[in-house]
């Protein structure tokens, strides 16, 4: 058992624990903090895979920008606590969905053909990523930024609409 394997196990456990906590916590800000732990541990796994640029992008984009946008969305919208009790049918549907996802993932990995191992794996990593993004994936790259901007504007519009409705009810 090597040190790299132990570090991978620690990072994987932190990522899984953060994801499980994110799903089970009740306060949204606590959920965002656990999501940040998940993002940072995944960035650590990228470092173990010699993908330093992807790890830096993971920390800057996901742990930074997306988390800030989530927090702004939380702050700009009103949340009335309407606690719903989940029915047995709903829990069963969620469980069937989880089993279906696990089965698809298992069979996808089981039938995976990796082909030959790359000989030039760690040479000019950042340059290869930049060429791929700006040569082949420039439209999805730009559409992602537009999507984030639209989500932020939508949160602001919803917050303003709720404020106007509250003021109309108060009068």
From TrEMBL:
It is an enzyme of class 7 (translocase). InterPro entries: NADH_UbQ/plastoQ_OxRdtase_su6, Nuo/plastoQ_OxRdtase_6_NuoJ. Gene3D superfamilies: NADH-ubiquinone/plastoquinone oxidoreductase chain 6, subunit NuoJ. Its main location: membrane. Signal peptide: none annotated. The keyword Membrane applies. It is a multi-pass membrane protein. Pfam families: Oxidored_q3. GO terms for cellular component: plasma membrane. It is found in: Cell membrane. The chain crosses the membrane at residues 6-25, 32-49, 55-76, 88-109, 129-159. Keywords: Cell membrane, Membrane, NAD, Quinone, Transmembrane, Transmembrane helix, Ubiquinone. It catalyses: a quinone + NADH + 5 H(+)(in) = a quinol + NAD(+) + 4 H(+)(out). It comes from the Bacteria. Its EC number is 7.1.1.-. GO terms for molecular function: NADH dehydrogenase (ubiquinone) activity; quinone binding. NDH-1 shuttles electrons from NADH, via FMN and iron-sulfur (Fe-S) centers, to quinones in the respiratory chain. Couples the redox reaction to proton translocation (for every two electrons transferred, four hydrogen ions are translocated across the cytoplasmic membrane), and thus conserves the redox energy in a proton gradient. Belongs to the complex I subunit 6 family. NCBIfam families: PRK06638.2-3. This is NADH-quinone oxidoreductase subunit J.
